[in-house]
């Protein structure tokens, strides 16, 4: 069986659905620390899992006969910067608990890293898997720590640890979880519902991004790869764009959409986080080792996001009507 922690976050529910379609509902145990919506509960096992409670996690691993773990529980960049103590507990101690359980119970463990694991001294363009990594955000520091601990456990204890550095993820059906790339999701809801978006990043902030279904497919391809891979951690990329480029693409569909940017003299706190991250990634190793290839470029992603959110708005109107 597979255990997914952080199942109710931006990425977890989509991953649980995909794994359940592959292995059957009963073989994918979803978990989080808050109540799941009814349809989620009806689709398969869901348990409360506080990743800071080793005994509770071990109980789940034993009772449910878990073989693989996808560990998604984490505080993302913006939230972590504002809640350092909780971020260190969840992101480091929580991950360490799961990594130790993977060693004790011989579990395969997949836990994503992030472009946030790079820092301001990392080469910004076409950033390779192996390079300078001096992140200066709590989120990036915790994720780099986890990368190194996962590699150590594979080297020293033979734990099958797998990880990929996710870019910003665009999703229409699940809200983002308090990150710096969230603007790329919020913009669509504002464009469809209000025709305007006050962007919290400057217009030329170029960041690596990916559509949700590409992320889930890339994760599953990596998680299920049948033989040990040369690396534990891989960059995973699809497309890089700036808020201005994204707005221009949206305006092809919504010509009256307008956007504003912060006063450069008073930047949003997330600007410094975004400025410390790469503008684009080299993910050639993932393409070489497990055949990674994105399916969604900017045009396709924008059309799909707008179509999905416009359908949501129509459905909401019907429910109200
Ligand atoms: C964040 N969406 O902004 C997350 C992600 C690469 C960014 O880790 O923190």
Automatic annotation (TrEMBL):
Reactions the enzyme catalyzes: L-threonine + NAD(+) = (2S)-2-amino-3-oxobutanoate + NADH + H(+)
GO MF, one annotated term: L-threonine 3-dehydrogenase activity
NAD-dependent epimerase/dehydratase domain segment(s): 2-228
EC number: 1.1.1.103
Domain of life: Eukaryota
GO biological process: L-threonine catabolic process
Pathway assigned in UniProt: Amino-acid degradation; L-threonine degradation via oxydo-reductase pathway; glycine from L-threonine: step 1/2
Family: Belongs to the NAD(P)-dependent epimerase/dehydratase family.
Free-text function comment from the UniProt entry: Catalyzes the NAD(+)-dependent oxidation of L-threonine to 2-amino-3-ketobutyrate, mediating L-threonine catabolism.
Protein name, entry field: L-threonine 3-dehydrogenase, mitochondrial
Originating species: Entomortierella parvispora
Segment of the intact protein contained: 77 to 397 of 410
């Amino acid at each position: 069986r597979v255990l997914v922690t952080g199942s109710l976050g931006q990425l977890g529910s989509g991953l649980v659905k995909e794994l359940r379609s592959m292995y059957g509902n009963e073989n994918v145990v979803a978990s989080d620390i808050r109540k799941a919506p009814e349809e989620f509960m009806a689709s398969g096992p869901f348990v409360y899992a506080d990743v800071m409670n080793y005994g509770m996690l071990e109980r789940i691993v034993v009772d449910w006969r878990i073989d693989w773990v996808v560990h998604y529980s984490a505080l993302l960049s913006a939230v972590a910067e504002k809640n350092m103590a909780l971020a260190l507990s969840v992101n480091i101690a929580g991950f360490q608990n799961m990594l130790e359980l993977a060693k004790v119970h011989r579990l395969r463990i997949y836990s994503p890293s992030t472009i946030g694991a790079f820092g301001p001294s990392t080469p910004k363009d076409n950033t390779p898997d192996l390079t300078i990594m001096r992140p200066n955000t709590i989120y990036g520091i915790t994720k780099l720590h986890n990368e190194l601990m996962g590699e150590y456990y594979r080297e020293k204890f033979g734990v099958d640890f797998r990880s990929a550095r996710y870019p910003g993820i665009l999703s229409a059906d699940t809200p983002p979880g308090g990150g710096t790339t969230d603007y790329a999701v919020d913009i669509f809801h504002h464009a469809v519902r209000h025709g305007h978006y006050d962007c919290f990043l400057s217009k030329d902030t170029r960041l690596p991004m990916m559509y949700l279904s590409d992320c889930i497919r890339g994760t599953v391809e990596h998680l299920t790869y049948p033989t040990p891979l040369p690396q534990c951690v891989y960059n995973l990329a699809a497309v890089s764009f700036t808020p201005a480029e994204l707005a221009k693409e949206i305006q092809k569909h919504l010509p009256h959409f307008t956007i504003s940017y912060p006063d450069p003299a008073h930047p949003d706190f997330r600007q410094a986080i975004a400025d410390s991250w790469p503008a684009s990634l080299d993910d050639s190793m993932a393409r070489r080792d497990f055949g990674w290839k994105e399916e969604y470029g900017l045009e396709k992603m924008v059309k799909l996001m707008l179509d999905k959110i416009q359908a949501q708005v129509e459905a909401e109107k019907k429910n109200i009507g």
